[in-house]
User: Fold this.
Amino acid sequence: MTSDQIRETFLQFFTERDHKRLASASLVPASFDPSVLLTTAGMHPLKPYFLGQERPPHVRLTSCQKCFRTPDIDVVGTTTRHLTFFEMLGNFSIGDYFKQGAVQFAWELAREGFGFPEDRIWVTVFEGDDELGLGPDEEAIAAWEAIGVPRERIVLCPRSENFWQAGPIGPCGPCSELYLDRGLEFGEPDDLPGGDNERFLEFWNLVFMQYNQDPVNTLTPLPAQNIDTGMGLNRMAAILQGKTSVFETDQFWPLIQLGEELTGRRYGEEREVDVALRILADHTRGMTFLLADGVVPSNEDRGYVLRRIMRRAVSRMHNLGVEELVLPRYQEVVTELMGSAYPEIVERRDEIAMWATEEERAFRRTLEQGTKMLQEIVARAKERGDEGVGAEDLFRLHDTYGFPYDLSRELLAEQGLGSDEAGFEALMEEQRERSRVGSGGKRPGGLAGFETLFGDQARDLAPTAFTGYERLEEETEVVALGADDGRVAVKLARSPFYAAGGGQISDTGVIECADGDCRAKVVDVVRVGDDQAVVVEPETGSLKPGEKVVARVDRATRMATMANHTATHLLHAALRRRLGTHVRQAGSYVGPDKLRFDFTHSAALTPQELRDVEDQVNAWIVENWPVTWRETSLEEARAAGAMALFGEKYGERVRMVEVGDGSFSRELCGGTHVASTAEIGVFRITSETSSASNVRRIEALTGPAAIALLRRHDALLREAAGALRTRPEDVPAKLVDLQAKAKAAARGSANQAGAEVDVDALLEAAEAVDGARVLTARVEAADNKALLAVLDRVKPKLGDAAVVLGAAGDGKVMFVASVSPALVERGVKAGDVVRLAAQVTGGGGGGRDTMAQAGGRDPGKLDEALGVAREAIERALGA
Assistant:
């Protein structure tokens, strides 16, 4: 039975038994679930249903969910079964059938669907746990006995084996696992399921979701008793295909064969090769699906997970002597194997290949340089007779040179050396703290749920009807009142107030009693699932449950926010048209004051690209396209090409916003928008910077705010014209003339080394990166003295900055670097950066953290060296 057949057999079995079939959710969890970086289980997308926060589309569900688990990354390749990316088959009951029903379904499918003899099926159940205050799961034992499983094939197991939880807190419960007995040829007569043996293979886990754990070891019953089961598709494939390893099954073997082709080695000939080929097969599957779900390589969070598996895969190929690009080759095979079941990896084939190619090329440069440095560190450690390598050396490799700690640890282990992991983590935490201080921290998150606001009555409250799409004023009534840190939480029957979501901030406004006896200022709107509550500060009188009120949104604030939201959609469309379809939203802020849009792209936009994007948005504004929305099914919206935001959770019915006929902008969006693009007025980009590795950020203004900015610019131009005693339109020519005269005067001074360099052009080339200014540039300079003179002219005008200048001539290369003390505190060190640049050109050098010089022997690699220096600075800044 193929993997595709196993998937379909499972899903069809439960569909025929009144389960609604759900498509796999994204590997990026919904924004309301901060407990995990990536989707790790089939039930994760369903947590709001289990917690009673949202109404499920049906009480019986089934799915095949894409999953990714990070704890196994280091183990992958060393065993025949551990994976990072995998598919989890599952059936779920939300308050419908419980243990007896789940047991009966599992027993029937295992025997009739997959053909397992019933005398070879064993089961385990929870034996109880004193810390949780629970005894043995007698109900589960009785359920198995009721369908004919003998008591001797029902084995009690501890919490570590038979109590399931998605994370430290959240839905949880005892579980019962099904095992296949492969016979005495794989073990001993006294072997049992749950033990460390090869005789019994676990193939299905039935979780009886009865509790919510919060805090740790404190259980409260869930609103309804639920069922969550999980069957690993790849493990089932190994069993049904008669393979001893998941890597020999139909989803993996073509990837193993590709590795054999690329390396000229054979799987099974030696352990090192086997480990490498397994890592490549697993990690490139995970890479393909993470990239398809909008994750891009970076140094933070899920982007770091992606970067780590990509680099781990490339390093293994590098160790086997393969120097050609391999990740795009693997991606193609993954797409051929799994594209029919997961069309997103086909639809995004080109952008996946782009990211895979760029990341591999960048890492191969890092790998070559980092490996040389690590070899030097290893040699020194062995000369001294050390048992391992210190944290400072490892941190330096990671922080300055981009060489992953995990890779250093693995390579050191191969040399018989240890690594100071605790010390490394301490240095990493110091760096994170510097970054937190530098960024000013983040605003605390919202409220945990309605129980926090309204206490025991929360579960009995009907959902608030949102009417803010149609009107800004609503006659309604107060359903309930609660407390929120000294303020008042109000549950309205109908509300025109938008609750923050999709990047758009919450509405503000007022609530007034119909009789005029009370008035409260709306300061926040809390979203819980599809519901909301309004947080107010009373001004006069007091609100009471059942009271008739008028809820009124602040019109000016909402209209400005709507203009910015629609402009964000136009900006997204313009960026994709100008830069390519790899551009995807990676975050946003939409308020009345401005819009901020983060998007996936690997390089700073050129002035011409920015101008083209701004012109395109303004052209669409002038064309006065209608902005419309309609509710449709998620399937129909995707078929229509609607853009969806990664990390957002969508139900079966979605709101699709279109500009014009939707040919250039069609997105799934629950936010508020103008009725036509002309209402935006004007669009003006104010900045374009780096938000994170491979993520750019644009900030912009619209409407009155943009007009005010343009007027300020006009005033400054008139002021400059007055100072230069010329007309505003002649200011640029006047400045060019003055600059030319200044340069001529400077060239006439013998003591003005480096004065012929266009410093103003250099200053324009400096880019804002995560709150700092970064300049890496090639200049004309005859010697080190002239190069330092240019640096001295640039530094005072950049403020907190990192500057690396390079010059070439007479068969040599010169570098100078300067880093402000504030950036040194954030981890950027001039000596480290300039040394890395010099190594590219076959040289060396160093100096202080704030000032350093270096030289090299290969002028042809100057530009590459400056690019490497820039990458090192951005890594240190966390960008």
Remarks:
- Confidence is low (pLDDT under 50) at residues 435-448, 749-753.
- Residues 276 and 316 are 6 Å apart (CA to CA).
